[in-house]
């Protein structure tokens, strides 16, 4: 005896044969509904108990028979509606099609809108068209798709079964649109830059590598958008941005995916103070546009995105959270020894920049609930920002944190090509043999030598912004097709 899936598939295959035997194509070429389901609800609310004839299309999500009458729940992207099929209205032949309609099928219906006694918007069907038969049954009606790995591997079933998933990805699209709208209104020009690059630069990250056969050349998938956009600043585009995928050959976690969406923007004649202002205004604008409020719930906390956000010097934040003042330790070895005394374990012989980064993630980040800018990072941590005015040991950089998670990173951009080359070469020496090293991009440095104006630069992780505004804990829940390990054999 076959499995339940085999039996269902066999029954549905027979339904397809029965439809074809009656001259009905179960997979027609086209159907043109006159209204979305959301719009049919709006029509009924505006025009009263009985209103116009409409045609709609969608997937059958429920089927109920009551004597010579049947009800289907039909859903499209915009919503769900009940449709009523009466044998006396349709006639025996057309009503008989109902026998071959299963949950999961796509149908088109035409009929008059009305309100039931319980005030449910319903279509009284005069015409029923099969648009696509489903061979496989949908996940259980009441429980939906709950297995996490299946939800990620078969996102289409997750979208069919789970209202929260559909809402998340509809909101994601609106968040991206609102981000673009905000930047466009600020005078930024959207551009597209290459994914395949001769050198992997713009961020400390291990790149993916591929081979171009026609050129017989190894290329890298970009790890950041930065260098190409700053070349456009050199070229005279004073405000520029890109929303694009970047790729980092690193670990997978609830906060990290090997490919993710990044927004980077650059503004000539600006500095990191201007980028702070831009960041908090962008977050507030997007939240208000998409959710109708600047107050959101994230990681079990109520977060207010209304500007201005808290601003704290990194040195003060580390000192307050750990009791350690990293400025008192000029060398990595002495700082490492002090951190070991505090119970912070780091393998190998890390440089001073990596040690301070560990202090931030261990002591500072967990306590940053409300939106906070950490300002003025040590020079060793960042090869691209300008040195802080009045303190050459620091650079003008900030990171924005909410509920312990980083959302934005920004600089007053370095525009001195001599200084830039020296910093990159120094980092190469310090991190010789490491996989996540900035390389000295000669083409970028040459571009800087033609003259780059003072510039403020900002990067925002779009996936994390979506997590924040939809209340999701894992980055996998805001990426339609997240990277997974190979499927294991049963």
Task: Give a description of the structure.
This protein is α+β, with helices and mostly antiparallel strands. It contains 15 helices and 19 strands. A hairpin with a 5-residue loop joins β4 (106-115) and β5. The mean pLDDT is 91.
Annotation keywords:
490 residues, alpha+beta, OB fold (Dihydrolipoamide Acetyltransferase, E2P), BirA Bifunctional Protein, domain 2, 2 domains, 9-stranded mixed beta sheet, 5-stranded mixed β-barrel, 15 helices, elongated
Number of helices, counting only DSSP H or I runs of 4 residues or more: 15
Under CATH, the homologous superfamily of the largest domain reads Bira Bifunctional Protein, Domain 2
**Euclidean distance between termini CA atoms:** 21 Å
SS strand fraction: 25-35%
> What would you say the CATH architecture of the largest domain is?
2-Layer Sandwich
Give the % helix: 25-40%
The CATH class name of the largest domain reads Alpha Beta
Give the overall pLDDT as a whole number.
91
Which regions have little confidence, pLDDT < 50, spanning 5+ residues? none
Task: Tell me the structural class.
Answer: alpha+beta
Overall number of domains: 2
What does the main sheet amount to? Answer: 9 strands, mixed
Radius of gyration: 29 Å
Query: Would you give the CATH topology of the largest domain?
Result: BirA Bifunctional Protein, domain 2
Shape: elongated
Number of strands: 19
């Amino acid at each position: 005896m076959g499995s339940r899936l085999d039996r269902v598939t066999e029954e549905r295959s027979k339904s397809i044969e029965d439809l074809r035997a009656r001259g009905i194509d179960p997979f027609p070429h086209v159907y043109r509904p006159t209204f979305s389901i959301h719009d049919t609800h709006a029509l009924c609310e505006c025009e009263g108990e009985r209103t116009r004839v409409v045609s709609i299309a969608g997937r059958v999500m429920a089927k109920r028979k009551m004597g010579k009458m049947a009800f289907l729940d039909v859903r499209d992207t915009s919503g769900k509606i009940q449709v009523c099929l009466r044998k006396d209205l349709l006639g025996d032949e057309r009503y008989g099609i109902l026998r071959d309609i299963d949950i999961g099928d796509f149908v088109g219906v035409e009929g008059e809108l009305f309100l039931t006694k319980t005030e449910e918007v319903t279509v009284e069907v005069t015409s029923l068209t099969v648009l696509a038969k489903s061979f496989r049954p949908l996940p259980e009606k009441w429980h939906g798709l709950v297995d996490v790995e299946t939800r990620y591997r078969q996102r289409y079933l997750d979208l069919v079964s789970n209202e929260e998933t559909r809402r998340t990805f509809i909101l994601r699209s609106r968040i991206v649109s609102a981000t673009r709208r905000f930047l466009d209104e600020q005078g930024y020009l959207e551009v597209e830059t290459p994914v395949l690059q001769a050198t992997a630069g713009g961020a400390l990250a291990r790149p993916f590598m591929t081979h171009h056969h026609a050129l017989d050349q190894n290329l890298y998938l970009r790890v950041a958008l930065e260098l190409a956009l700053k070349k456009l600043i050199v070229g005279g585009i004073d405000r520029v941005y890109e929303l694009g995928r970047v790729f980092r050959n690193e670990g997978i976690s609830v906060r990290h995916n090997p490919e993710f969406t990044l927004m980077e923007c650059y503004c000539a004649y600006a500095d990191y103070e201007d980028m702070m202002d831009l960041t908090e205004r962008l977050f507030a604008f997007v939240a208000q546009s998409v959710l109708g409020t600047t107050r959101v719930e994230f990681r079990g906390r109520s977060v207010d995105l209304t500007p201005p956000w808290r601003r704290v010097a990194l040195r003060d934040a580390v000192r307050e959270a750990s009791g350690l003042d990293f400025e008192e330790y000029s060398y990595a070895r002495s700082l490492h020894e002090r951190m070991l005394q505090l119970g912070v374990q780091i393998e190998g012989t890390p440089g001073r920049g990596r040690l301070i980064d560990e202090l931030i993630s261990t002591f500072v980040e967990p306590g940053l609930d409300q939106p906070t800018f950490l300002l003025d990072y040590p020079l060793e941590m960042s090869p691209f920002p300008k040195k802080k005015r009045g303190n050459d040991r620091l650079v003008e950089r900030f990171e924005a944190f909410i509920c312990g998670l980083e959302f934005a990173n920004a600089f007053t951009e370095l525009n001195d090509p001599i200084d830039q080359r020296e910093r990159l070469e120094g980092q190469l020496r310090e991190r010789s043999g490491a996989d996540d090293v900035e390389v000295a991009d000669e083409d970028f440095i040459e571009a800087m030598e033609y003259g780059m104006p003072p510039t403020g630069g900002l990067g925002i992780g779009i996936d994390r912004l979506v997590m924040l505004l939809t209340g999701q804990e894992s980055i996998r829940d805001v990426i339609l097709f997240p990277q997974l390990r190979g499927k294991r054999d049963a």
